[in-house]
Amino acid sequence: MEKELVTMVQSRKEEEESQTGSLFHHAASSELDMDLEIQRYLYIAIVHATALRSHRLGASVVSDKVVRTEVSKYLRRMPKAMEGIDIPSFEGTTVEQMKERMDRYLYSTIVQSSAVHASYWEHKIIDGKKENSSTNITTEEKKEKKTIITRITSTITGFFIQIRNWTTSTITQTWTSITTTNKRVIAIELELKEKREMVVRIERQLQEKTEMVVRIQRELQEKETMVVSLREEFTASTTKLNACAVKADKAAAQLIVCAKRVRKLEAMINELQEQGGRNGADGLDFDWTVQK
């Protein structure tokens, strides 16, 4: 049964390697090698999870540089179990494809780990004694088998605990990010609302200013029309005044002529009066009064 399981795992492994490129190492030859192998795949799973966290879009491409950067940030330093191992390159692979492949890798690794441990235990010789039958198991062998099973179980349990911890951490970080984003969105929406109200207020003020400008322009046009009318009246009044001045000049000239005639008449009257006095009672006796 175990041989069939090993054969199945090996076949599954070769099939996946032909499809996606190998991430597996040579089959472990001892418990220590197998434990190291499990640790390596555990860290590969961490790399996978970290890359997924940074590239949530299924269509994005994860490069080898991104994977190395993420694992160095997540683990701070390369763990001892990863020494001498090439970090798998996911270059040219989308996140969804990488997720599917990592699921197959981890499944095959766990199955292969169990099969190799079982095969290793089956062929081990304890204290140089051979087993009398395949069903006869000594107390020491039972303890060893129990220890191996416990170790495998602990390793697998630790793996799932780390995955659970990572999932919890990711969910917490995501929720924190969502909460922070929501707060920022609310703040931005409030600021946007204030800006919109300010825009409406400015538009209303601008409309009022525009109406005021139109009213002032209309009043200015009316004033200009009034100024033109006053200029026309002023021109007409000036013309009339000039005409009156000309008439006044003519009247003054006529008055001067009349004054000269009056003075001439006064002289004649005075002369006649003097002549009348010399001629006696027969002379003319009248008084001339000239009002100037």
UniProtKB/TrEMBL annotation:
Residues 1-15 have a biased composition (Basic and acidic residues). Residues 1-24 are annotated as: Disordered. It comes from the Eukaryota. Residues 185-275 form a coiled coil. Keywords: Coiled coil. This is Uncharacterized protein. It comes from Leersia perrieri.
